[in-house]
Known about the structure:
Blueprint: E1 14-17, H1 31-39, H2 41-58, H3 60-63, E2 69-78, E3 84-92, E4 95-98, E5 102-106, E6 112-117, H4 134-145, E7 148-149, E8 153-157, E9 164-172, E10 177-183, E11 189-194, E12 197-198, H5 202-211, E13 244-251, E14 257-266, E15 269-271, E16 273-274, E17 280-284, E18 297-298, E19 300-301, E20 305-306, H6 314-336, E21 349-352, E22 361-364, E23 369-372, H7 387-401, E24 409-410, E25 416-417, H8 419-439, E26 449-450, E27 462-463, H9 488-491, H10 493-504, E28 507-511, E29 514-518, H11 531-545, H12 552-567, H13 572-582
Parallel strand pairs: 1-2, 4-8, 13-20, 17-21, 21-23
Antiparallel strand pairs: 2-3, 3-4, 3-5, 5-6, 7-9, 8-9, 9-10, 10-11, 12-22, 13-14, 14-15, 15-19, 16-17, 17-18, 22-23, 24-25, 26-27, 28-29
Helix pairs in contact: 6-7, 6-8, 7-8, 8-10, 10-11, 10-13, 11-12, 12-13
Enzyme class: hydrolase
GO molecular function: metal ion binding; metalloendopeptidase activity
EC number: 3.4.24.-
Amino acid sequence: MRRPHIRSVAVAIAVTTAATGLAGTAFAGPSAKAERSSASAATNAEAVVEAARTAAFAHTSATGVSQGDELHAQDVMLDPEGARHVRFVRTHDGMPVLGGDLIVHLDHKLAYTGVTRAAGHTVAPATTEAKLSADQAAAKAAQAAKGDAGSAQLVVDARDGSSALAYQVTVTGQDSTNTVVVDAVTGKVRSNTPDSDEFLSPKLLESLRKHGETADPATGIGSASPEAGLLGSGVSGATTTYPSAAKGTGKTLFVGNVGLTTTQTSRGHYQLKDPSRYGTETRDAKGSTTEKFGSGAKFTNTTDVWGNGATSNRASAAADAQYGITKTLDFYKATFGRKGIANNSKAAQGMVHWGNKVANAFWDPTCNCMLYGDGDGQMFKKPLVVLDVTGHELTHGVVDATAKLEPTRVDSEGNQYGEPGALNESLADIFGSNVEFYANNAKDTPDYLIGEKLGLAQKFLRRLDHPSLDKLEGTIDYWSPAAYDTEVHAGSGVSSHAYYLLAEGSGKKTINGVNYDSPTYNHSTVKGIGRAKATAIFYRALTRYMVSTTDFHNARIATLKAAKDLYGANSTEYKTVDQAWAAVNVTVANTPAARH
């Protein structure tokens, strides 16, 4: 689960060019155009941003931009066929606007072609006069989140169909931080959301307790072929210049012996840090709940071997984490040309042995890193460092850097609800499973199952082909109006199912020895277009056409637009996208009335 975490809008512009697709996938647009677009990206970025901002104010009826608004560019995307997309966050009278994000679309001549917006209304609040003081708001936030409140900042809360003056407060508790939004006029707590991103929801943990279930997955399961680094070069064990890249071996808990690119700091001394992947590193939290990566202890050794395949060695879990993190980076780079989680060529980071008996793992936007618990010793008896968990959670980081999909509400136990949050969970499952396919590790068979190595009685946590086979979370196969307020992991089945149908089609199928049998709501037969093309479409939709409030029907539109961009409006791929969504009961005909 990714927690809404509103950051400063004064950010540098990242320029993204379209990827050439997954291996063997041809994208629309001649390669010469792609080369020209890529070469001119940096010099054209400012012009594209200014054209998009001008277009937004020139088309106010469509974009919802009004007097007092300012648009701050978060991302500039230049596509091979010539389209340009600029993702903006918004301020109003100098105040950050929650739920005010939008994407302005331009053609190759920088002419306006459309907008994707989170708020379907103008964001100006009825009043800009606060009745609560900042101190009063901070006190209410501290009471709501049960922790120590930081300073309160005035914002405009334009989420969920409203537009209200509010205070945003970060509250620090014993083990985590929450972002609390307090109405500046009424004093009502509008939202109270954890900033960290837990793989296992409170609702699931309670379900496991009720079932009396424990998860004790097998570890130390033999060797896999060592694998060389992808992003860097010059790995050598015979250098006298330090620090330098070295070829190490991770003796992991879950994927056998794997190759890891490490750093040789001096003769006979090594660190679990990958210089070929932006300095990506895993550290030891040593049981603390720190959210500062720098506070973690470095993994160092006098041999370039990490772990022993068992929990008796603290570096075993670190080897799994480092392998999973680097494979996730490699997947995103090789598949989409994405350079790091935020596409900024910066390290991805992880800390293992986080907290005391923590049965969870999560993406933490506070430290921009993965945090892994060791399990509670009772219900979960091993560290949660399996490959698809890492791929899932780091994908939340990708979503955090792009669409920032947010739940519509969070209950008092920390469970999240709503379609945008469910779509976030679904994308994490979709791309997490793709990380497995990319890694193609013989000790972790690539599949469309999530958490199959956690040791659960039902043999998986979630699955994409027939989501309702997950009885622990009550995941759903099809959309209905109730999906709008369904717990996000349960609701994720709608779009995960649509993705599977798009990729592999309906009915029975065996892939890598795993049997699938995907049903459809309308009893239709869907013929899949292949995982490569389906993944390309969903990634393009996420980065170009999804915003913080995108629901399932908007996701349908986003993937149709992506398919049109990549393959054409008359293509089999485009038509199959429409069929796949209809097969999970997401259609034009049952689109709900606007909620915003």
